[in-house]
Amino acid sequence: MNKIQHNELIDLSKDYCNTFCALYRLNTQDEAEIDKIYKQIKIKLIDTKMFLPSQILEVICNVAKLNNRYMKSYWELFRKTAENYKIQQIFSSTYNQSKYKTYESYLKERYIKYFIWDEIYFEKEEKTNDKNKNINYSLDIHESNPICRSLVLDDLGSFIFYTEQDGFDKYQRVKSNFYPYSLLGYSLLELCCYYGAIRCFKFLRTKFNSEITEKCLQFSFLSGVPDIMNECLKFQRPYKECMECAIISHNIDFVSFLMNEYHLKIDLEDCCRYHNLQVYLMYLDITKDINNCFVLSPSFHFPELCKYLISHGANVNAIGHSSKTHLCYSAVNSSRETVDYITTYGVNFVRDYNYEWFAIMDAAWNNSAEIAEILISHGARIDSHGINEKTACHIAIERNSIETIKVFVAHKDLINDSTLHLALIYDKEEIAKFLILNGININTHDNNGKTPLHIVADGNKTEMAELLISHGANINLTDKNDETALHYALKYDRKEMTELLISHGVNIDAKDKDGKTALHIAAERNNKEIAEFLISHGANLEETDNEGKSALDYAIRYDRKEIEKLLISYGANINAQVINGESAAITNRTNNEGKTFSQYYHNFINYTFSNCIII
């Protein structure tokens, strides 16, 4: 077995390391320099098939949040990548010419929204556009906060000016979506450390004796200004968060310093998360922990690294410190080439590695369709239950992994009957439409007896209901409470859904387990408009529930006066209550004006006739 040669790996990964170092340590707004970095990314990372263009877009956004002084420079990299590769779908949103004036306006919106909403919520916020109409998609993140702008530029003169104004609060904290997440926000001194604003830093320490916090020290490793770092080290001791910031900075000297002086350990997952292959290789050289390094190696999207480690003795079925295997990380990172390669070395495709999660679930989570296909072809089951009893299909739907769902549907024997229900519950319309159009059983019941039509009726999704009905959905199927889709529509006052179901011939007088019809529910909920619509389409006014009560009984019981008038005007039998044994209770009850129902009824009749126009 060949011994691992550190220098060989350094040479092998030189282009990769240099490219990511340039991206993370970007410190220019010069167009020529930005274009140079873009070409480096294009040639070394995208054109080599290591990364998809869409993956690079996400990397750029993540790095920009860690170095937001150069937000506009990262925007240029983002724009150039998207435009050059004509990417039409970014972070769950598809480019729609009717919605955006230009493609660039679409790109800018997605770039800014990446910071405002996590990508897992992108699709949800797209469906509630009204709340986003007033968002300012500006790349000048401190245009409304001049104090922060002076810190970005380390403009001591303007900073002093602002501190001398009435109302200046030396304890103020700044919160922004454009910074790494913080529940409480950051102090002015912490932001000095983030931006490397040494002059403003010294002023705050001298003038206000601003406190040096742990976050100050962490950010000092991020910005890399020695004077700030040395001052912070006088008051705070480094912990693992400082090592994380040193890894982010792509400054191997900082990492070595923390290891040698403070005995901090390298977190390999941080190396992967921040694309710091150089520190990862240093860890491998020091520890010789080839198997754990191999397990995580797909995270770098660098197939040659995986091949090198296998050729030097890595176990393809090794389980890493995270209780995951190389195969799982390959699925997470859509590393088709590495999966194809390890197939020839006897990798176990079926074994679950922590009894709660499977490689096929990682493929579903990250929409790695090609990996999912390979895993299934080698025996992986998409219907195996993992954490929270979820299957790979559940996860693909939650994550809106449409391409992976298409792979799963091609193996229909592995798809269970709840798949369409889940797509509708999670409001994944594209997946739901795909399933319906590809022949999934649309009349199946879930554990509560609900059909897909019940779910869309509950959610008032008329377009989806139309699609289901047009593909054979039975509109009169009931759940375990004997409720039809019409009952669901009525319970939540879904007028459009009610009209749709009736137009398709739903049984308007169908009863639930308590004997209630749609008209009973409309009366109970005091929905006059729907009640009148039901009556005009043939609803039986005299249908009674299991206790013998009609819709009029419900209107009287719940004091729905407008419904009472409506039902009586359409001929509801006011004497029926005698047969039901409740004559005294109903006809003698008084309203708020002290009148009995009989008095109220006679007044109503008199009023009706007195206002008639005889023609």
UniProtKB/TrEMBL annotation:
Sequence ranges of the ANK repeats: 415-447, 448-480, 481-513, 514-546, 547-579
InterPro entries: Ankyrin_rpt, Ankyrin_rpt-contain_sf, DUF3447
Source domain of life: Eukaryota
Record's keyword annotation contains Mitochondrion: no
Residue ranges of every copy of the DUF3447 domain listed in the record: 208-283
SUPFAM superfamilies on file: Ankyrin repeat, Pseudo ankyrin repeat-like
UniProtKB keywords: ANK repeat
Protein name: Ankyrin repeat protein, putative
Organism of this sequence: Trichomonas vaginalis (strain ATCC PRA-98 / G3)
